[in-house]
């Protein structure tokens, strides 16, 4: 009911009124907490369609130092000092003054570095206002939130607003993204670019150019030679595999170098990192591998499935997917079905945050994107827990090296149903409960 009222109000009330409302929230919150976002030495903002959480977690880990305190605001959690608070808002960049309160606490704890994931919704609602970001990072831009922004062009412009500061110190840009030139058009005292291609035509437009050369992906790691402005900095090794993770890693290295961290320390810390929860997280048992990943857009799903097929090389791949978020981005449902069918030996379509939409209708829309010739390998299982159980059964039956990839929820802790109802959730804990024969939740995800 609340969502329906909001939807009606948005249709009849001018957008400028809503922006003013959110802007005032940000202003008075900043005023109440005495503008903490202007008093912390280094605040890093990371934006992009995908990879924000992984990059934020990498930067957080690489910046850990006994001489500096680091704080983090991500879609997974909020960290200040030794305190870790789960992000249960079901939004990456919380509003209504939360960020200002978070920054005030970080300042009180004497944090020198704060890392914040910045979303297009957050920018629309002025959540990034009154925060002096020392470093702004652009990862990538692909089709997402199109209904919310009324088209890709508006989505891009919204992201661009984040880089329109008059006195920005550093912009860090993924030069391989198709929209890189647009984000390079915004001024900063120094612009840092990163790429996987030595002959990238945009490298002459940046002050510092980071290049990953001779990169190699394996099941356990990614190795690459880092080159900065033509000078080799040695071979680096990351436990995160896949091309998409290499871009996230380069972004994190660019940030830490910009902050003045020593290259050898970065190299050593990077080698010993663990993947963020629910971001290409691998669980192994005998010949089975279960991958839990947040991929919920066509681009991210394709990149992850491609990595699984080309790097992990399974004999049999089962993919479980839904379409994150009922009531929005309906365009991507058929595309998710089509992409899943390109790489998977079996597909399970299931429930995933339907909100007030009929979950069976969402599943059917994904199904319609799967070519007729490949529909025989598809199962529709509304109950997400039962769907996970079925996926495990499928890979157990097959000989060889088999992988079950579970997409859409990642490390999220809630399943969002109709009328604002939320139930506690963890794809990982459900997988482990079936693998160890221990009970997890005595509930299911059926909403009918």
Question: Can you offer a commentary on this structure?
Answer:
The protein is of the alpha/beta class. It has two domains: 2-271, Mur-like, catalytic domain (UDP-N-acetylmuramoyl-L-alanine:D-glutamate ligase); 281-436, Mur ligase, C-terminal domain (Protein-Tyrosine Phosphatase, Chain A, Alpha-Beta Complex). It is 36% helix and 22% strand. The chain is built from 15 helices and 19 strands. The strands form three sheets. It has an eleven-stranded mixed beta sheet, sandwiched between helices. It has a six-stranded mixed beta sheet with strand order 12-13-17-14-15-16, with helices on both faces. Helix 3 (52-62) packs across helix 9 and helix 12 (332-343) crosses helix 13. The mean pLDDT is 91.
Keywords:
448 residues; alpha/beta; UDP-N-acetylmuramoyl-L-alanine:D-glutamate ligase; Protein-Tyrosine Phosphatase, Chain A; 2 domains; eleven-stranded mixed sheet; six-stranded mixed sheet; 15 helices
How would you briefly describe this protein structure?
With 448 residues, the protein is α/β, with parallel strands linked by helices. The chain is 36% helix and 22% strand.
Structure classification: alpha/beta
Global shape: globular
Q: Supply the number of structural domains.
A: 2
Helix content: 25-40%
Characterize the largest beta sheet: strand count, sense, and whether it forms a barrel: 11 strands, mixed
Spans with pLDDT under 50 lasting ≥5 residues? none
CATH class of the largest domain: Alpha Beta
Instruction: Quickly count the helices.
Output: 15
Strand content: 15-25%
CATH superfamily of the largest domain: Mur-like, catalytic domain
Termini separation: 18 Å
Strand order across the biggest sheet?
A: 4-3-2-5-1-6-7-8-9-10-11
Q: Architecture of the largest domain, according to CATH?
A: 3-Layer(aba) Sandwich
CATH topology of the largest domain: UDP-N-acetylmuramoyl-L-alanine:D-glutamate ligase
Mean pLDDT: 91
User: What is the number of strand segments?
Assistant: 19
Gyration radius, in Å:
22 Å
């Amino acid at each position: 009911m609340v969502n329906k009222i909001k939807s009606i109000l948005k249709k009849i009330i001018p957008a400028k009124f809503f922006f003013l409302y959110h802007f005032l929230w940000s202003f008075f919150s900043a005023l109440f907490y005495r503008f903490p976002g202007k008093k912390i030495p280094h605040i890093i903002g990371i934006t992009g369609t995908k990879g924000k959480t992984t990059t934020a977690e990498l930067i957080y880990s690489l910046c850990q130092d006994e001489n500096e305190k680091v704080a983090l605001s991500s879609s997974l959690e909020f960290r200040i000092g030794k305190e870790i608070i789960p992000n249960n808002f079901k939004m990456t960049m919380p509003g209504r003054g939360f960020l200002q309160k978070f920054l005030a606490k970080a300042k009180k704890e004497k944090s020198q570095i704060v890392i914040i994931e910045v979303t297009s919704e957050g920018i629309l609602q002025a959540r990034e206002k009154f925060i002096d970001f020392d470093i702004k990072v652009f990862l990538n831009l692909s089709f997402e939130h199109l209904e919310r922004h009324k088209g890709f062009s508006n989505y891009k412009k919204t992201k661009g607003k984040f880089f329109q500061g008059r006195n920005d110190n550093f912009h860090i840009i993924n030069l391989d993204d198709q929209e890189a030139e647009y984000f390079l058009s915004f001024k900063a005292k120094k612009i840092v670019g990163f790429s996987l291609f030595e002959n990238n035509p945009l490298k002459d437009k940046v002050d510092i150019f980071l290049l990953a050369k001779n990169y190699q992906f394996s099941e356990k790691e990614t190795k690459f030679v880092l080159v900065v402005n033509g000078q080799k900095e040695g071979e680096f090794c990351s436990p995160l595999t896949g091309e998409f993770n290499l871009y996230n890693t380069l972004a994190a290295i660019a940030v830490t170098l910009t902050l003045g961290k020593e290259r050898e320390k970065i190299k050593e810390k990077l080698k010993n990192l663990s993947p963020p929860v629910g971001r290409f997280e691998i669980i192994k048992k005998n010949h089975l591998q279960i991958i839990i990943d947040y991929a919920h857009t066509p681009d991210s799903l394709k990149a992850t499935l491609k990595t699984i097929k080309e790097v992990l090389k399974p004999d049999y791949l089962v993919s479980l997917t839904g379409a994150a978020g009922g009531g929005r981005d309906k365009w991507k449902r058929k595309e998710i079905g089509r992409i899943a069918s390109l790489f998977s030996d079996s597909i399970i379509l299931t429930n995933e945050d339907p909100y007030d939409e009929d979950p069976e209708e969402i599943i059917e829309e994904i199904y319609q994107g799967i070519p007729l010739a490949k529909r025989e390998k598809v199962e529709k299982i509304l109950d997400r827990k039962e769907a996970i159980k079925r996926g495990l059964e499928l890979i157990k039956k097959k000989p060889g090296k088999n992988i079950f990839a579970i997409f859409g929820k990642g490390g999220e802790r809630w399943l969002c149903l109709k009328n604002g109802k939320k139930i506690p959730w963890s794809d990982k804990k459900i997988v482990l409960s079936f693998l160890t024969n221990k009970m997890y939740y005595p509930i299911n995800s059926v909403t009918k």
